[in-house]
């Protein structure tokens, strides 16, 4: 029997800005293994603490789910950096029927509220931020997922450059499954592991890919995974945001992990912003590195181990 959640925490709020009760259960889709806020029965939480996500629809969705989950009189603390949605939190919560105390601290806005007797607009906010089919991608998707409603130009360039692959491979950071669908179009592909740290992406990729050769896992590429070994190929559009130092480090980990899990002669297909310094780590980890395409600020590499 699963123990009901009494306090939900979303993300990793800075410890000096929010006290997280010991019994709090993590519900962020970006932390593998977390519970789903969507599955919390309405009116059952005593409290919720949210490091509110930056996307507007995504944030309103999480605020609405948390309010739905709270029992009458339950407390909600939502915070976010001022320039990543924090400045709009109080207004968004007021729009959901809450009376809000809003405090600025260390470049964040910290909003506290008690669940109102009759919150407003919860259904609209959860519908707006929930999974749906978008026609321009012809895929199932959800706000908050990388490039959730349009084809990323880096992915487009990789799609245009990929040959028909063979054997068993992996898609690191699979997102909605756009690259995986193209890879699986080759009948010579016998297996494909899709991995993403975002549960929403993994859930949508399962719907979008639906191929018996594919296995989709909610996991962090940085964690050990014994199922990934002696692969014939890896495809990836590694995470990037602003091309900041942290993102570059993560991109380099994706390259190193690909080199680890490929067999000798196996190939990595990687697309990235042209300004990201990935050529040196590719050359350090692979025997042959070939720039295959370059357009609109992106580059595709084929790297052979
Ligand atoms: C640039 S997006 C590419 C998504 C998809 N392949 C595409 O082409 O549209 C990078 C993906 O990596 C995922 N990601 C970020 N960090 C990760 C990690 N540590 N482990 C696994 N996936 C990660 C993100 O959630 C995101 O879906």
UniProtKB/TrEMBL annotation:
It comes from the Bacteria. The keyword Repeat does not apply. Signal peptide: none annotated. GO terms for biological process: methylation. GO terms for molecular function: methyltransferase activity. Pfam families: MTS (PF05175). CDD domains: AdoMet_MTases. Gene3D superfamilies: Vaccinia Virus protein VP39 (3.40.50.150). InterPro entries: DNA_methylase_N6_adenine_CS, RsmC/RlmG, SAM-dependent_MTases_sf, Small_mtfrase_dom. Keywords: Cytoplasm, Methyltransferase, rRNA processing, S-adenosyl-L-methionine, Transferase. This is Ribosomal RNA small subunit methyltransferase C. It comes from Methylobacterium trifolii.
């Amino acid at each position: 029997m699963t123990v009901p959640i009494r306090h939900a925490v979303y993300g990793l709020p800075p410890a000096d800005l929010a006290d997280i009760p010991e019994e709090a259960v993590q519900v962020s889709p970006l932390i593998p293994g977390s519970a789903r806020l969507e599955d919390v029965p309405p009116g059952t939480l005593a409290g919720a603490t949210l490091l509110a996500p930056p996307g507007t629809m995504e944030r309103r969705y999480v605020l609405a789910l948390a309010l739905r989950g709270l029992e009458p009189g339950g407390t909600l603390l939502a915070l976010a950096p001022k320039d990543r949605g924090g400045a709009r939190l109080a207004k968004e919560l007021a729009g959901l029927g809450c009376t809000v105390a809003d405090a600025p601290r260390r470049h964040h806005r910290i909003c506290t509220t008690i669940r109102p007797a009759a919150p407003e607009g919860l259904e609209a906010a959860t519908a707006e931020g929930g999974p749906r089919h978008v026609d321009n991608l012809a895929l199932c998707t959800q706000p908050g997922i990388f490039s959730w409603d349009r084809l990323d130009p880096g992915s487009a360039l990789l799609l245009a450059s990929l040959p028909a692959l063979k054997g068993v491979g992996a898609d690191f950071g699979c997102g909605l499954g756009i690259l995986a669908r193209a890879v699986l179009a080759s009948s010579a592909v016998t297996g494909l592991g899709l991995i993403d740290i975002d549960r929403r992406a993994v859930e949508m990729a399962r719907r979008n890919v639906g191929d018996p050769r594919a296995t989709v896992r909610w996991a962090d590429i940085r964690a050990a995974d014994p199922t990934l070994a002696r692969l014939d190929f890896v495809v990836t559009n590694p995470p990037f945001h602003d091309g900041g130092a942290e993102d570059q480090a993560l991109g380099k980990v994706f390259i190193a992990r690909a080199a680890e899990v490929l067999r000798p002669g196996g190939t990595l297909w990687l697309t990235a912003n042209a300004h990201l310094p990935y050529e040196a780590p590719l050359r350090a980890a692979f025997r042959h590195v070939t720039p295959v395409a370059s357009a609109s600020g992106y580059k595709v590499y084929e790297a052979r181990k």
